[in-house]
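Work package 3, deliverable 3.1, input record:
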Amino acid sequence: MTVQKLPIAKAINESLRKAMENDPKVLIMGEDVGKLGGVFRVTDGLQKDFGEGRVIDTPLAESGIVGTAIGLALRGYRPVVEIQFDGFVFPAYDQIVTQLAKMHARALGKIKLPVVIRIPYGGGIGAVEHHSESPEALFAHVPGLKVVSPSNASDAYWMMQQAIQSDDPIIYFEPKRRYWDKSEVDTEAIPGPLHKARTVVAGSDLTLVAYGPMVKVCVEAAAAAAEEGKSIEVLDLRSMSPIDFDAVQASVEKTRRLVVVHEAPVFYGAGAEIAARITERSFYHLEAPVLRVGGYHAPYPPARLEEEYLPGLDRVLDAVDRSLAY
Amino acid sequence: MTVESTAARKPRRSSKRTGSSAGKAVADPQLVQLLTPEGQRVEHPDYDVDLTPEELRGLYRDMVLTRRFDAEATALQRQGELGLWASLLGQEAAQIGSGRALRDDDYVFPTYREHGVAWCRGVNPTNLLGMFRGVNHGGWDPNSNNFHLYTIVIGSQTLHATGYAMGVAKDGADSAVIAYFGDGASSQGDVAESFTFSAVYNAPVVFFCQNNQWAISEPTEKQTRVPLYQRAQGYGFPGIRVDGNDVLACLAVTRSALERARRGEGPTLIEAFTYRMGAHTTSDDPTKYRADEEREAWEAKDPILRLKTYLENEGHADEAFFTSLEEESETLGKQVREAVRAMPDPDRMAIFENIYADGHALVDEERAQFAAYQASFADGEGK
């Protein structure tokens, strides 16, 4: 049976397993990824089946994890490293930005850096500080990196396969609060391109663009709006670098209204980039300014306040109403 | 090497050793030395090298040519041909000694001052100058000489070396990896993390710290309260301090550490105790922070002079050798000068090249916009 209903975490697990079976050069590295199977169990059972040499429990040193992964990639391996939580990537940020992102260019293309960095990201799980952030813009801003985030199990499975096969460094953001959401995965399917956006809900009055954890909220918003007779199109971006602007543009030129939704702070966020570019591309098609819904310019709040901080159904619908009111 | 030379050399050296050990033993037991600043061969209980006169002349030649190359690059910077230069003046023995200890299949992760190691690896010296001239940020294929790109961020490469060495071990290969860094880099977390990872995974890597006493204007005392080589003990692998101005000792100690790595016994930290005779880079003014007397004291320990004295005293090199080497140096200087001046500016489209291996839509879009903008100039300047 090639079609199964899987939670996202399990889909990534199956994808890692398949990649390791297909290519002996694929390695898993990170804190607690071995015996424990990762704190979210994404790597569950892999060390048991592939051994400590391929599923490597590392010292608690993020720069060391990424830095040694770079060295392993230079030796011909394809490391998939896990950063345990979003807020813990910063000790490795130097290695990612100054080394991993640039080495291919510095060698005039003579060497490849096929490193995948998995980061469970985003809020909504009632965690403590540094466990709920959305730093994707910080990576998308860096030339040399690619940044993706699946929103469902099928994408989680296939985008991981594609990320591992890519010769470029890829930051793979996993929407941790959706880890247990189930959807169908066809492991025999032919996946579309890794960086292509996908229309989740078709509509004609307004386009909602989201990725990762916010796709589900936007689909719910579209359903709620439909009850009020509004036809909302929902686009799952899937990739934050590069961004499939052609898809966003095509949708906006059909609906003439755009709202971008993400958990990350709005200020300097992905929404700012999308708003600017779509304004440039589709200025005469827009009936309203591009609106953004996202986090505030504040540190991610304590868990008891995160529902206030995270864009929910009401905030998305409020933006939809404001856009439609122009 | 001929049979005669070996036969002639052995008794002479052993008599020399007897003589030296009677008068001048190893001054500091913590500092491995095989050749004193006065050019006298001394013994060390744990380390030795057995070199033919030809090999000794080879090391001398390497150091002289490396120094000449370095001097030419410094001059080229002063003449405006290079934007910056990081001189290795004074560190020739550390680099040639360790560099000549390497096998072809070993892999080197340098910082930005390892011109002598690059020389030993057979890297075209012109390649080293591209980044300092501003035509690229590295520009060579690391795999063609097993010599990675220069790394400017301090200490980052020690982790790359460790990861690479972990890969070597996984492959079951018996080659080794060497990571170069300085005393300033020893303060960086990445160096500490590379010590941890290499120890935990028993990686075949040698950490070669050139303690040249100064990290721009900051002395070693601002980096550490214990001698650097002693740090290794806390990570569970050996640390050795070697006279970094003694090419023989550097060769012996590095060779031993590489063999240890090959045997699967894990990492070693070597602290080559040396001195940066010049500035940190050509942007720096060392007269503002260090005394002339200090430099003068270190000049007396010059790595090239001491080997020259030894070669002359032992009759291992004659006047013709030194004259011919002088000529070779001048030729090298001229070639470097010409090569730098002939180095073309990169094509402007190079801005968009090699950012990604598999392409990127935004880069494609911006490349096209840039090309169209350049093409818009009527005089064709943009082509």
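The first strand of chain A starts at residue 3 and ends at 7.
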